Please model this.
Amino acid sequence: MALTGHAGAPPGARGRALVAADLCHLVAAVAWVGGLPALALLLAETRHRHGALDRLAIRSIRRFSILGMVSVAVLIATGVVNGWRQLAHIDDLWTNDYGRLLAFKVALFAAMVTVAAINHQCLTPQLPAPTAIHKLYRNSFAEFALGLGVLLLVALLGTMNPSKHLHISSAEFVGETALVHNHSADGPVDSRFNPTNKRPIDSRLQP
Model:
């Protein structure tokens, strides 16, 4: 996905850096959200044993807590990079559909981080207390549900053009023209061509 999206379009070192940021973002999301069902299964098994936690289970839960912290840090850093790449202006977060959907995604992510922080700071240190196990089990499902919401919004965002990549509207075409959307070192460029002589009519650097 990182290699086929907008991240890989710019040439040179800038394009490679954006692909790397996109790749790290995806890996961190998969590690965190994808690991939550396994954590819930571990906690469910523990509850069936009436709260009896062995050393391996406690160590696994604590290691997952650390994995979550690292994933959050990577997601925040790469999310800022991706936001800078996708949004033309900060007010896009409330002035167009793509920005509003992205803002909603950020809100769900913030809710996930809040639940994860409660798990890490308040509940994990209380292990192996049965009440902590029960709350961690409940919170793992809440965290996973929020993660699925984030993934759904990512899928919806993938069907839309970011505000920094808006193409020339077909209503602006004059006569027989063809549109070419390209990426240069300075950013996305929309060019209109006369298909008969293949000469550009005009080119427009996106903001």
